[in-house]
Predict the 3D structure of the following.
Amino acid sequence: MDLKLKLEQLHQRVVGLKDQINTEEATKNAFVMPFIQILGYDIFNPTEVIPEHICDIGTKKGEKVDYVIRNNNEPILIFECKHWKENADAHNSQLHRYYHVSKARFGVLTNGTIYNFYADLEKPNIMDEKPFLTIDLENLKDNSIKILESFTKNQYSLESILDSAEGLKYIKAIRNEFEKEIDNPSDEIVKLLVNRFFDKPLTANRMIAFKEYAKKALTISINESISYRLKSALSINEKIEKQEDIKTNTVDENQDESKIITTEEELEAFQIVKAILREKIPANRIAARDTQSYFGVLLDNNNRKPICRLHFNTANKYLETFQNGKDTGEKKQLKSLDEIYDYRSQLHQTVDKLLI
């Protein structure tokens, strides 16, 4: 089975069980051990997956790391686990101590939902402060899963992981710096951009003005790029839906598609709905379809599984929800897009019924 599909199934398990998981030990048994098993390691073989492995640190005896993973009789991974409610980033100092006395090249800090992978890229045998790879079951990314494959039992490759780790580390650092520039452009970036088209001296007042211009320009550029990509995705979804509807004879073949206009408000509302639904299901299971009458949000790109509809084509805006399980939903008037968050429970109820 595909690694991504296995991780998505584990996420569904986490969502369904987490409210009943009250201890760190239960988190390990219910969530972390299945994750290790997904990587191909035998969790019932104590020579391959070693629980409570002793990592004595100086004069401190009896220190134990939750799991050590061995591949070809060599330790490759250490796991330190926390309760699913805890922040996976908050305990790396403890993993740092274990890593120092371990022979493994990689350490994992996890709360069962987020898995942070660390290495020693900066200094040999000293764990880096920041992870080079994060696997978030609620937000799985294809490029991260590709690197995770190198950790599986059958495909483990130290060289491949280290090459990817270094690249990921610097890509993440560059992204962080770029996001800082978007939020608050520095003098250096403003000068770099403005000097290409503005041949007058950059006085203090002009610098203040151009900083604000740069911030707006960067934000607009990114928003327009996102909007274009989303519209392209919606266009693809619409074509897929159209093919399904032709097979089931549920759509008027003479509908004039040229009259369908996807507005910025509809796209923004869809992002809000998507953020709410991601608490329940992976983002790739949330699809959208714009029609002349409404903008629909669907489960698994299936027009027979409507989650909600946005009616924004009139003076008043409405959110139509389907938590009652009927084909016709209940419309709620929206004074602002932020009010969509008020219907979080109804949207979750609808998804729960569709998943049954």
